[in-house]
Amino acid sequence: MTPLQLDPDRLLPPDPTRRAVARRLHAAVADLPVISPHGHVPAGWLAHDVPFADPTSLLLTPDHYATRLLHSHGVDLAHLGVGRGPLSPEASRAAFRTLCEHWPVYRGTPVRYWLQVQFADLFGITVRPSAETADEIYDRIAATLQTPQFRPRALFERFGVEVLATTDDPCDDLADHATLAADPTWTGRVLPTFRPDRYLEVGAEGWAGHADRLAEVAGVDTGDLPGFLDAMQRRREHFRAHGAVSADHSHADVRAERLPDAEAAELFARAREGSGNPAGATALRRHLLWEMARMSAQDGLVMTLHPGVARSHHGPTQRAFGADVGADVPLPGDFTRALRPLLQDFGTDPGFQLVLFTLDETTLSREIAPLAGFYPSVWVGAPWWFLDAPEATTRHRAAVTETAGFGKTSGFIDDTRAFCSIPARHDMARRLDAAYLSTLVTDGRLEEDEATETIVDIVTVNPRKAFRL
Amino acid sequence: MTPLQLDPDRLLPPDPTRRAVARRLHAAVADLPVISPHGHVPAGWLAHDVPFADPTSLLLTPDHYATRLLHSHGVDLAHLGVGRGPLSPEASRAAFRTLCEHWPVYRGTPVRYWLQVQFADLFGITVRPSAETADEIYDRIAATLQTPQFRPRALFERFGVEVLATTDDPCDDLADHATLAADPTWTGRVLPTFRPDRYLEVGAEGWAGHADRLAEVAGVDTGDLPGFLDAMQRRREHFRAHGAVSADHSHADVRAERLPDAEAAELFARAREGSGNPAGATALRRHLLWEMARMSAQDGLVMTLHPGVARSHHGPTQRAFGADVGADVPLPGDFTRALRPLLQDFGTDPGFQLVLFTLDETTLSREIAPLAGFYPSVWVGAPWWFLDAPEATTRHRAAVTETAGFGKTSGFIDDTRAFCSIPARHDMARRLDAAYLSTLVTDGRLEEDEATETIVDIVTVNPRKAFRL
Amino acid sequence: MTPLQLDPDRLLPPDPTRRAVARRLHAAVADLPVISPHGHVPAGWLAHDVPFADPTSLLLTPDHYATRLLHSHGVDLAHLGVGRGPLSPEASRAAFRTLCEHWPVYRGTPVRYWLQVQFADLFGITVRPSAETADEIYDRIAATLQTPQFRPRALFERFGVEVLATTDDPCDDLADHATLAADPTWTGRVLPTFRPDRYLEVGAEGWAGHADRLAEVAGVDTGDLPGFLDAMQRRREHFRAHGAVSADHSHADVRAERLPDAEAAELFARAREGSGNPAGATALRRHLLWEMARMSAQDGLVMTLHPGVARSHHGPTQRAFGADVGADVPLPGDFTRALRPLLQDFGTDPGFQLVLFTLDETTLSREIAPLAGFYPSVWVGAPWWFLDAPEATTRHRAAVTETAGFGKTSGFIDDTRAFCSIPARHDMARRLDAAYLSTLVTDGRLEEDEATETIVDIVTVNPRKAFRL
């Protein structure tokens, strides 16, 4: 059986001089707490502290990074339990075996790295995944998940999580967050994030229903635009009262532009009637995003933008398995032109703070870093989604640092629902920053004491400032 | 006289730890056969096995990589024999001397690398090209080309070519391929590739003539759309009967979208009359490309797309020297949006296979890798044309691997008419993959046995799967 | 107090084999003269040789690279003296203290690198900038600036400047250039550059006034298009008579396309009346740029293009502080399509020479290098503005060399008004080229004697050829 090993120097540069510096830099932050200001772990896991069910439903089924690659190699998503109810024990074991059989598929990808670290470090697996070892690994993880040390709260503590932000619908009552806050035995910090996308997509199917639900939950009539905005404002207050520090937005583009009041009201009325057209829906969505920015400048919720994805690129897959199953494909980005109206109004407003994420790497050196290198309100978001991997993360630092420095970057964002991968993800980011900074030191651009201070800031100060924690 | 030398460790990383790993990885594939599923060597060279004429017409005149750089430094293309008939012995020698005099022009380019390897390894040249050494090198190569060991078939064997695909017009009778297949003394595999671009560009000058010719060759009236498609289908069958495994397409963009039958028929009728307009021609071209995809899903010819070049950017050069003389300039690419209609219909069709090439590197991490990392039908094509060079190839692996892994990449494509450069090109790709994989090994992302298996797969398994060989 | 040190091997690669090669390559060019064919130092500084006033107005206030990063961290531009008259001694000292306090903000940026080299090498500062050391550093620089060795002419000589080009308005009388030329005690070469942007932007506020002024200065009526072009031609002659070798152009895009005479005349007439529309203004600007190219082909002024910036992205900042204060943000570029009309007409004209700069890195491998690798007239401009930094410069070489070689690149352009940073900037470029070339040598792509010749060419031959010096 081939052993599964973790190189203690993984991701650090091979050159001995650089490696020595990188090791010291990594050591300076290796044990610092995890600050996770944007992610998708359900608060309920921690509120109710129920043991995780089985290896597949924890590690494979919900992780579209892992399932899409199997799909690209011909595995049916149904076999992996995607978009279905709970798997039977046999189906769960079979899906996990498929993962192990396809272990070579993940070579060179971050999925391989994260799974390997979880297997080796967290679950104590000592053999390489394969058809032969699949059952052994499955049984070991399944047994481990039943122990008290692997209950969600125990893991939260073990992982050293200082802050964990969830992502939530504006109509969510945030009961799980309230439960945690009210629990004297719980000392962790779990914050909701206001994510109103579907309420802004006025041209999408089902929007009227969302607006109705918003009215009901906020206790305000959303039949006209002022009422709708008032309802939004109230839900933001609700989130702030439960600890929220940011509002997250993901649309096809980032344009946010105010319309004349009458035009906005008119478009809203048409949308409410269901008689609008696509151009009007887009204009109104951009107006509503501008209103979100205005509210952010007032209530202090940091605005984060995650744009530019063709969601559910393959219609038949969406119809069979739903959204968020790995069929989203990025699009070219535009920040310089699209953000101009918004930044005219709020770019130097001390109440406003904006973190920009992108899946289009070309915008990093060309648009995002120059914006963050001028506007006090703008921050460079960490590498996101397809780009939170070693090579892409290194390219990201190289693309933004020379224009925006380190101090206007957000710190690492794990953006994950794969709870057990959180330590591996944050540690990967720390290793890559250690590697990047070690180059600056060894080629004489930075002194080592400055590099040490910088990496500690990246892990601690930057996310606290960027997200007003 | 300055010697011409080949570093046995060329393109491998300088760091000793990485170099040792990279050497072992390269050694594992250095002597494996060459699989060349897309290229431009004429089948007639092998069918008739006529000796190559002279150094210039073999190595310089037809290679627009080499001639365009001389042109950019002020050399007249006419002096190099571009777009003209055969050169006189004096003109051939003079053109070759110009190449040698301009040897410094190629520093840092792959042309320099490929020529150097051919000169040193194949022709036994031991002096650096220059004005002083030009005649000596010319004479040595000219003499060598007259020996039996340098006839095309002998070189084919010496190069270890297992499969060589040519690129052919749908109306080609493929007589040379048939000659080879019928020759009991010939054991190589030389496959045609179906390349119907000009038959799809219904708005281009001369299209009606191509459609007429197609009718004649296929024995089917191409006066209406069903007839035209039937003729195409028949020619594909002809190609398949001669061993073709793929159909190659190169248009300004990759959009392939079905029109309603009546609209397509109407546009076709107008094109046939010569009364169409540009927008209609584009819509019909995209419809015809969709039909090509439909046929691919049925007959199994792998579809390959090579889009996004402004062909013959300089009109006066085209008028004086023809097409394909180095004046083609790339354009921005679009895959996510443009391929959506096609992939709705065939993206998960088990009969359909699509290999995507690009000259716009920004599409690699943003669009192509995410598509190949979800759709079972989609493969990442190797770095192509301007990008089949050391730095660009390394960027290509770094851009796609983290999202699509190694298993959905096509393997190396030489895409060349420069027959003698084929071994140098494939070996370059192997060295660069060895270098890339050695980084994964030395920074702890991959075990060396996995890297070895991966590089062997890239050279053997990947092209066989991607091209259904 | 933490010392301020300069690593003599800064920016050279850490691997010992590569470092040894890179050191030798850098040594071969370290002491060669500075050729600066495009920049923004005022000729008056040298003509009048007045001592520099104070550290802040020399090193901080006019350098938007330095001020924009402080602004992005919340410092008011007014506090730094931006867009205001001279600072009081107290305000100057306070602004400089702000710079020193924010020293960590510049980590990883070229501003840090350039300031550090100036502080250590030029001003003999031995302590790291900080709140504590700010006054000491300020006093030391202030005192030094009063010594004869720090007068502009003394520094010009000390820096080894062989050629320095300024950037000038077409209506400038070039009196300072004339003063220098007439001064028998002055042997330096200071050349004006023709920069007619505002005269081509016919739709911009104030254009009519510029056209009137042009008429007055040129002594030609600019009331119609032939007169306007005649006036331009005369001013170009005036510049050529004062030593100009190039004409520089910076518009939103690079399209230059001839209109029919009547249409151009009509659009010009409307612009003159103030009755034009934006589309007409753009078409006329592109026609005028085409006319500039035509004149360049005739009078031999090298045409340089610096396109693609959203100038003064933040309106309120522009209104308060003016233009060029660090609020310019790049846009996506387009060269292949946009330059086609121009290059049809002048691409192979031996009188025409064109240097292309970009802030959109994606255009380097995709468009600019392929254009420069075919057209004899086209040169790849050096990394510009946001991109004249170590990582970006390395990416630039890697993106263009494999397609265009070294011989069609312009040599380094400092493009700066920060006079004292000129040696540090040119030396940075030399170190980075040494590092790049050392890789080619150590991985067997180039012999060291060729690399040495190449780096010497880049520093000496390339700019002389590209700018016809």
From TrEMBL, chains A, B, C:
Catalyses which reaction(s): D-glucuronate = D-fructuronate
Pfam families: UxaC (PF02614)
Annotated GO MF terms: glucuronate isomerase activity
Isomerase listed as a keyword: yes
Biological pathway: Carbohydrate metabolism; pentose and glucuronate interconversion
Top EC group: isomerase
Keyword check for Iron-sulfur: no
EC number: 5.3.1.12
UniProt-listed NCBIfam families: PRK02925.1 (NF002794)
Family, similarity comment: Belongs to the metallo-dependent hydrolases superfamily. Uronate isomerase family.
Name of the featured protein: Uronate isomerase
Gene name, Swiss-Prot/TrEMBL: uxaC
